[in-house]
Design a protein that fits this description.
The chain is mainly alpha-helical. It is 80% helix and 0% strand.
Length: 137
Amino acid sequence: MKQSTDTLWTAITGGTSITLAYLLGGLDNLVAALTIFMICDYITGIMVGYKEKEVNSYRAFRGLTKKVGMLVFVIIANQLDMITGNQNGFLRDTMLTFLIATEGISIIENVGKLGVTPPAFIRKALEQLSDKEDEKQ
């Protein structure tokens, strides 16, 4: 059985993944949660746009650029932790937690626009998470 792989594609995707993981300070639960929240927010945003008949490629691209901007903030926070010798990653974790709360609130707003009432405990948890991050700053 002959096995074939596209080594250029493998090298590009592998190199990109490793570089991104390094810049983000590793792939832990916070990065995974932020990624999942970003995807859910993007999907629910498209659903709201479809419902309100406002879906277009420009708005979708603008949403993706905002997500990339959020990842840039995580990279900056991680680099600041490295520069200051902060071994526990306080700034990175704080930035990730803040962004997760922001994305969660956006998801709740999007789902509300779709006519689904989110459970109160989820809204309260995200608001508390957001409030804790404001107190740390």
